[in-house]
């Protein structure tokens, strides 16, 4: 069974995930963005801060 088939089969059991991002000092759900802001968000470069010993 493919991943897509598993997702469709279990769609009733899934919980909606809301992704928040920080905008101008406060957190806001991405789903409330307009089309332009959603496009901006997709183009953002994500990074992972490395853990180094100080």
From TrEMBL:
Q: What class of enzyme is it?
A: oxidoreductase
* Alphabetic keyword roster: Oxidoreductase
Give the GO biological process terms.
DNA replication
Q: Which GO molecular function entries does the Swiss-Prot or TrEMBL record give?
A: ribonucleoside-triphosphate reductase (thioredoxin) activity
State the Pfam families in the record: NRDD
Q: Which InterPro entries match?
A: NrdD (IPR012833)
Record-listed E.C. numbers: 1.17.4.2
Top-level taxon of origin: Bacteria
- The protein's name is Anaerobic ribonucleoside triphosphate reductase (N-terminal region)
